[in-house]
């Protein structure tokens, strides 16, 4: 339905053949029919097929994926967004790419099931080889600099090991001096435990493990004793929000924030409150919306030209993509949230703001 | 029929304001129950229908490549007709209603869908979803009452133009998709000077592009592809026949939704300050169902459950059948008439009305059909005071 971008330069005859194919399939695209046979060939929607599943710990699973043909590869440390249909509803979440160099074009992600977590539980417990998932191109800045640092410190907690593993699998042999300080509740919770031990045994990293159930959370002040030269090291950190905040504060105090690269797995929580600020990305405009009135009404009162129709939730003439934030369905009280990068389509005529939200208009 | 508000026997006179609000609450509960159980089996249903339709279309078009052989011609034409009907009704109409938006699949979404029809999705969604579904059967507001070319209610003023309406209706049926496009363009409104010229010209261009693409596909590209086997003429004919079949079928189904005898209309003033309960009530009385087999329901896009569809236009169509008994029960308990009949009966009734009302009211009255049996009013309402203002 959306016309494909003409990013790949195709020979003239193929261009003509494609035009004829489009004329023969309008209002759909030829690929809508190809999808029936091979969903991985789509030019407009990147998808992947689950090739294999490998259990890492009792609640973590590595998913090996063959990406569709438009996949453009990734830089170690980056993540990809994965979309799966759960109870019929498409849900997207980001997962760091954990695979090392491969010749078969596949990539892997490693997911830790969170108690009550919708997508992570689905990926760990329900997903089966052969299934097709939605994907996006790799993204993220949590990658090694072009010029490899002489000394590195990797600080990880729990599933935060994943992007770091992606980096180590590609670059461990090229890096001279790496300290990896990894925290997990118990020894059996450590994802990639054997491989980490092998890397240490091979002399590629100095491995420091911490089991927080017995040793407690890492306090940054302990670093002076654990890694005395931490100030000289380019540091990559990924783990629970509390740990990252503590580290950021510590590096800030030391005046070394430029040496700290951190990757967050959770956006700052949107506590659905009593209304909030709506930001229209295209208009670059902010509006205060209370929690009781539809965003549509508030915006129109402020002179914003909004798409609209029946104004009672039946025609979908007012749908806008929610890029980030939360809205409440005024009819059911149900809260819909979107994390950065999402485009959850919401009806503005029956939704009130439930915290700050970014809408595409 | 006459607008409900002007009737001698107002079929809702026995309901108090509180009754109507209670009815609204009951219907909201049914809606919530469907929404809370919407899930993977519903998603699998619509994906399966889309898969079957696309497979059938591809298969039929492939068979038509050899359509100079009679059996191939017949099989291909029938297959293509069924596929086009599925595409417009169970898929296109319902997806564009937003019935599947909850899946958050951009490929099956009201904002991205385009259908195999002369009318572009954007125009159709405006005139159908916003106008018709909001103002259902309100005289002077809902243009679906006769599409602006016919008189389908005694309260629409007669003029000699309407003498020809049986013919207009038949012509409209044969070219229904173009009728819809013209209707969605609001041509009548434009010529009365009530539609902004720039918007009209923009829309006209959209329709022009859409029709060109549709025509090129059906009447140029596919016949050309069949030329190597010497089947271009037959392929062209097959495409024409499939479009014709689809037009006649959809036109019949749509007529059955609001035209059969027993369906109520409403005055313009009656919807001022309408509550949610009253809106529901108008949808209940303003629509008619068709009885039939499962295949028939799917072929109508489940518009055979027109009453359920009008109550909940954005619930997945596969669920209408499931809630129909509950809706019927509400009709019974509130003493309201659930208008329903077989396909031949409803099509006949709708046509009868089109023919009868081509005459002025005093002549039309002579051929008035026997009214359908009204639902009995449950005892508990008989003691209650009748509604003061029958609005
Ligand atoms: C850039 C990036 C990379 C990521 N890489 C990975 C990865 O490699 N492996 C991986 O397992 N996850 C990774 N995540 C986290 C992942 O995207 C999901 O947030 C996570 O799987 C939880 O999703 P869910 O749907 O299961 O939980 P939800 O249903 O969204 O949340 C359920 C509950 O869990 C809480 N919660 C959400 N996320 C977390 C969390 N990370 N830790 C603890 N509680 C949480 C929520 O507040 C909520 O109360 C990454 C996130 C980002 C932004
Ligand atoms: S305006 Fe109709 S659904 Fe919002």
UniProtKB/TrEMBL annotation, chain A:
It comes from the Bacteria. The keyword Endoplasmic reticulum does not apply. Residues 43-145 form the FAD-binding FR-type domain. Keywords: 2Fe-2S, FAD, Flavoprotein, Iron, Iron-sulfur, Metal-binding, Oxidoreductase. Its cofactor is FAD. InterPro entries: 2Fe-2S_ferredoxin-like_sf, 2Fe-2S_ferredoxin-type, Beta-grasp_dom_sf, Cbr1-like_FAD-bd_dom, FAD-bd_FR_type, Flavoprot_Pyr_Nucl_cyt_Rdtase, FNR_nucleotide-bd, MRET. The keyword Flavoprotein applies. Gene3D superfamilies: 3.10.20.30, Nucleotide-binding domain of ferredoxin-NADP reductase (FNR) module (3.40.50.80), Translation factors (2.40.30.10). Residues 276-361 form the 2Fe-2S ferredoxin-type domain. One of its GO terms (molecular function) is metal ion binding. Transmembrane segments: none annotated. PANTHER family: NADH OXIDOREDUCTASE HCR. This is Ferredoxin reductase.
Automatic annotation (TrEMBL), chain B:
GO terms for cellular component: membrane. Residues 78-340 form the Fatty acid desaturase domain. GO terms for biological process: lipid biosynthetic process. One of its GO terms (molecular function) is oxidoreductase activity, acting on paired donors, with oxidation of a pair of donors resulting in the reduction of molecular oxygen to two molecules of water. InterPro entries: FA_desaturase_dom, Fatty_acid_desaturase. This is Acyl-CoA desaturase. The lineage of its organism: Bacteria, Bacillati, Actinomycetota, Actinomycetes, Micrococcales.
């Amino acid at each position: 339905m959306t016309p494909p971008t003409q990013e790949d330069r195709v020979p003239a005859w193929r261009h003509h053949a494609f035009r004829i194919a489009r004329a023969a399939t309008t209002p759909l695209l030829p690929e809508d029919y190809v999808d029936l046979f091979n969903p991985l060939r789509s030019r407009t929607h990147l998808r992947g097929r689950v090739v294999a599943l490998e259990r890492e710990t009792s609640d973590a699973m590595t998913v090996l994926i063959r990406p569709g043909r438009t996949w453009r590869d990734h830089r170690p440390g980056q993540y990809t967004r994965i979309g799966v249909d759960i109870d019929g509803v498409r849900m997207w979440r980001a997962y760091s790419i954990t695979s090392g160099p491969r010749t078969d074009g596949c990539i892997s992600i490693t997911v830790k099931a969170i108690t009550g977590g919708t997508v992570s539980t689905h990926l760990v417990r329900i997903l089966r080889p052969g299934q097709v998932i939605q994907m996006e191109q790799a993204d993220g800045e949590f990658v090694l600099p072009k010029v490899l640092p002489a000394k590195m410190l990797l600080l990880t907690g729990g599933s935060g090991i994943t992007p770091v593993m992606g980096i180590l699998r590609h670059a461990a042999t090229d890096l001279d001096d790496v300290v990896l300080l990894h925290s997990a509740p118990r020894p059996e919770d450590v994802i990639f435990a054997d491989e980490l031990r092998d890397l240490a045994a091979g002399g590629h990293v100095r491995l420091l493990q911490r089991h927080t159930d017995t040793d407690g959370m890492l306090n940054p002040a302990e670093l002076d004793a654990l890694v005395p030269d931490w100030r000289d090291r380019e540091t990559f950190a990924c783990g629970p929000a509390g740990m990252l905040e503590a580290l950021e504060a510590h590096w800030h105090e030391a005046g070394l924030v430029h040496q700290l690269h951190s990757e967050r797995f959770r956006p700052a929580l949107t506590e659905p409150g009593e209304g909030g600020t709506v930001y229209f990305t295209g208009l670059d405009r902010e509006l205060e919306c209370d929690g009781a009135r539809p965003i549509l009404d508030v915006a129109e009162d402020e002179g914003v030209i909004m798409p609209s129709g029946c104004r009672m939730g039946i025609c979908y003439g007012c749908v806008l993509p929610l890029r980030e934030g939360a809205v409440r369905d005024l009819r059911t009280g149900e809260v819909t949230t979107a994390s950065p990068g999402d485009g959850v389509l919401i009806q503005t005529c029956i939704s009130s703001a439930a915290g700050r939200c970014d809408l595409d208009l | 029929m006459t607008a409900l508000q002007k009737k001698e026997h107002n079929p809702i006179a026995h309901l108090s304001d509180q009754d109507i609000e209670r009815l609204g609450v009951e219907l909201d509960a049914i809606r919530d129950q469907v929404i809370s159980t919407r899930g993977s089996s519903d998603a699998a249903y619509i994906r399966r229908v889309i898969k079957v339709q696309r497979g059938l279309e591809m298969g039929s078009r492939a068979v038509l490549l050899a359509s100079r052989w009679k059996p191939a011609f017949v099989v291909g034409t029938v297959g293509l007709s069924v596929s086009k009907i599925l595409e417009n009704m169970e898929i296109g109409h319902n997806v564009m209603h937003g019935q599947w938006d909850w899946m958050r699949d951009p490929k099956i979404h009201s904002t991205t869908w385009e259908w195999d029809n002369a009318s572009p999705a954007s125009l159709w969604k405006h005139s159908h979803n916003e106008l018709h579904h909001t103002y259902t059967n309100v005289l002077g507001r809902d243009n679906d009452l006769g599409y602006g070319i016919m008189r389908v209610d005694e309260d629409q003023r007669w003029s000699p133009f309407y003498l020809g309406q049986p013919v207009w209706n038949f012509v409209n049926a044969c070219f229904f998709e173009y009728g819809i496009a013209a209707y969605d363009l609001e041509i009548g409104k434009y010529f009365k000077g009530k539609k902004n010229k720039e918007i009209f010209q923009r829309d006209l261009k959209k329709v022009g592009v859409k029709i060109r693409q549709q025509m090129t596909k059906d009447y140029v590209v596919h016949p050309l592809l069949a030329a190597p086997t010497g089947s271009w003429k037959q392929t062209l004919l097959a495409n024409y026949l499939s479009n014709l079949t689809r037009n006649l079928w959809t036109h019949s189904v749509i007529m059955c939704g609001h035209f059969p005898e027993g369906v109520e209309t409403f005055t313009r003033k009656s919807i001022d300050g309408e509550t949610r309960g009253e809106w529901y009530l108008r949808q209940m009385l303003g629509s008619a169902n068709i009885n039939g087999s499962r295949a028939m329901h799917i072929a109508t896009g489940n518009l055979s459950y027109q009453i359920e569809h009008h109550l909940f236009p954005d619930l997945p169509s596969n669920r209408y059948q499931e809630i129909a008994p509950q809706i019927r029960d509400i009709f019974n308990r509130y003493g309201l008439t659930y208008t329903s009949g077989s396909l031949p009966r409803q099509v006949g009734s709708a046509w009868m009305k089109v023919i009868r009302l081509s005459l002025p009211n005093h002549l039309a009255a002579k051929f008035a059909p026997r009214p359908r049996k009204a639902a009995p009013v449950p005892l508990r309402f008989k003691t209650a005071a009748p509604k003061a203002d029958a609005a």
